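Run log // design_07
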């Protein structure tokens, strides 16, 4: 019944990676969950199909498809995870018209903070027509440990007036490897994947708490 969308026009900020991991995490919590892949590259649907678990997935890319399919699918599942496209297109606007929560992954760099601000503007427009829905939240993704950029980015994001999730997801090779390995961090071995798994778990608990 909840539609959670990952949006940000900036490619590479970890929309697909986070969408896949959240979908997988919910599936293993026995939730009825489905992924909607709205990106032309279709990387998340290809990735999901490569996993061993039979997790349902649908590709929907045009605004019409999204506006028709998301509400229909949402009524059949506990959670619908939407992997948004690159670009602030009409497809993104359509997604925001039928989501309950828009999550913006943001890398801690100047360019990425600017694109997060653009995404937030679009969310505000949707909120203005939908009585405050969708809720919005930003989190820092692919942050490099030991750099000051992270703290500066949090300062910038605070000015945008959107809740910032406490969890920061750090840049780790183990996460970058998951797509190629047809896996998620929960299936990979090693300390780095364990640490990444802990961050994802904490992030997803925060996200689900926003909806409860
Ligand atoms: N925490 C992370 N650490 C390292 N690499 C990451 C992390 N999150 C995502 N990546 C990598 O960054 C690239 C872009 O991620 P992706 O999820 O495809 O972004 P988007 O969907 O926003 O374009 C991919 O190669 C992915 O493996
Ligand atoms: Mg993507």
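design_07 sequence
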């Amino acid at each position: 019944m909840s539609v959670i969308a990952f949006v940000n026009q900036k490619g590479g900020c970890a929309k697909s990676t986070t969408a896949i991991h959240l979908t997988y995490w919910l599936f293993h919590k026995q939730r009825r969950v489905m992924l909607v892949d709205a990106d032309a590259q279709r990387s998340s649907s290809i990735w999901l199909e490569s996993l061993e678990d039979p997790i349902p997935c649908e590709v929907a890319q045009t605004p019409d498809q999204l506006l028709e399919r998301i509400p229909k699918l949402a009524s059949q599942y506990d959670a619908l995870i939407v992997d948004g496209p690159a670009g602030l297109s009409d497809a993104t606007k359509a997604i925001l018209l039928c989501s309950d929560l828009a999550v913006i992954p943001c890398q801690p760099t100047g360019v990425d903070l600017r694109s997060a601000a653009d995404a937030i503007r679009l969310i505000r427009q949707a909120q203005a027509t939908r009585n405050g829905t969708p809720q919005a939240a930003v989190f820092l993704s692919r942050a490099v440990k030991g750099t000051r950029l992270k703290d500066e980015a949090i300062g910038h994001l605070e000015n945008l007036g959107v809740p910032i999730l406490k969890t920061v997801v750090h840049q780790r090779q183990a996460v970058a490897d998951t797509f190629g390995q047809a896996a998620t961090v929960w299936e990979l071995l090693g300390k780095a994947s364990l640490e990444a798994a802990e961050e994802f778990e904490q992030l997803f608990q925060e996200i689900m708490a926003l909806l409860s």
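The helical segments are 15-27, 43-50, 63-74, 90-97, 110-129, 149-159, 173-176, 191-211.
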